[in-house]
Amino acid sequence: MSSSAAPASAPSLVSPLDAVTLRADFPILSEQVNGHRLVYLDSAATSQKPSAVLDAEREFLTHANAAVHRGAHTLAAEATDLFEDARAAVADFVGARPEQLVWTSGATAGLNLVAYAIGNATLGRGAPASARFALAPGDEIVTTAIEHHANLIPWQELAARTGAVLRHIPARPDGTLDLDAAASLIGERTRVVAFTHVSNVLGIVNPVAEIVALARAVGATTVLDACQSAPHLPLDLPALGVDLAVFSGHKMLGPYAIGGLYGRAEVLDALPPFLTGGSMITTVTLDGAEYLPPPQKFEAGTQPVGPAIGLAAAVRYLDGVGLANIHAHESALAERMGAGLREIPGIRLLGDAAGADRVGLWSFDVDGVHAHDAGQVLDAQGIAVRVGHHCAAPLHGQFGMTASVRASTALYNTEEDVDLFLDAVRGIRGYFGVTGSGEGAA
User: Fold this and answer.
1) Catalytic pick from 257, 391, 393, 422?
2) Can you tell me the distance from the alpha carbon of 80 to that of 95, in angstroms, rounded to the nearest whole number?
3) Is 391 a catalytic residue?
4) Which pLDDT does position 291 carry in this prediction?
């Protein structure tokens, strides 16, 4: 049986990262958009995929496609091996062991899994081990004011179901989290602290160690949204000390419909399952069932085998380039982009915190021009950005806005991409006949 579905890694590169060379690995970046070469600055929404990822999933479907953990035939055994090899590769990428990585369809599914599992613990499911997660009326769930909706709404729903109180760590005007307020909010009734590693609107890397320390001091479970950090900076989830963390494959060069939930072993062992059905059980009677240990306990039904293999190819590619090299490259692009935007009249940057560690992402307002109109001007020149509230409406409300323009970079972006983008932004207000100096950076 062919073993060609095993993905190859990208060659190791030395710093500084050669983004011009890397672009050749991404077929879509050779496309023309509206008569211009594509300048893709929307990787925070979804990243582009290198050929190694596209080939890995296709090779699996062509040569080894079969149901995993079920069949006794050769093809099923090979598919299972590739699937579990993929788990080991992705787990290693975030510093974890394979049994600490649960496959999900993405970060949103992972966060809902955790929230609903805690709700099941509150109902007494999984007792006695899961009793540690049970919520009582008046217990507190703490998030932050800068969260993506995926790390806010599941906790709103859990609070509504259990009588828990949802509280929020506020952000300062520069977009950094107010740790003094966090210290006062996280107290003896706090049971869950859920927060983002990197804001998808602000690009700021948040102080994980400080927040984890506050949560640990009161015995709260920590849940980290690592969607915007996993593809951009070295990530060791056990070293960060969080109890649980989620990430999405499509934001880290991988396929759609695949993501991961990392958990400390004792946490995953104690959490009751959320989805139930085939493949996650040991024995079943008409009156009850016993469940497999993690991660299979949380993987009911047919699994995303091809996407998992594609994600493994993606993390091998990222490892081959080097996350430290990627972070340095994108930080330089962020500095170049931020400096250029600050010089353009009428541009207001969000989260322009002096000295903050950040990824290559900026959101901004164009004075006198709606974000969607600004995005259309950029798109006409082949420049892809995100416009809207980026699934973070409360954060935009804090800035007195309903929408912004977001430009986000990845390892395949170049200085030329940034300069073309800045040239296009300079022309937005003039295109709409808006005059005046505008508000400037804030």
Assistant:
1) 391
2) 22
3) yes
4) 94
Q: DSSP character for 369?
A: B
Report pLDDT digits (tens) over 304-334.
999 999 999 999 999 999 999 999 999 999 9
Provide Rg for the chain, Cα atoms: 22
**DSSP 3-state helix, strand, coil percentages of the chain (rounded to 5)?**
40, 15, 40
If residue 334 lies in a helix (H) or strand (E), which one and from where to where? helix 323-342
Q: Where are the alpha helices (DSSP H) in 94-227?
A: 107-122, 153-162, 179-185, 208-217
Helix/strand/coil for 20? helix
Give the pLDDT of residue 13: 42
**pTM for the whole thing?**
0.94
Domain 323-428 architecture: Alpha-Beta Complex (3.90)
Which regions of the chain carry the CATH code 3.90.1150.10?
323-428
pLDDT tens for each residue of 30-53: 999 999 999 999 999 999 999 999
Helix axes 153-162, 107-122, angle to 10 degrees: 10
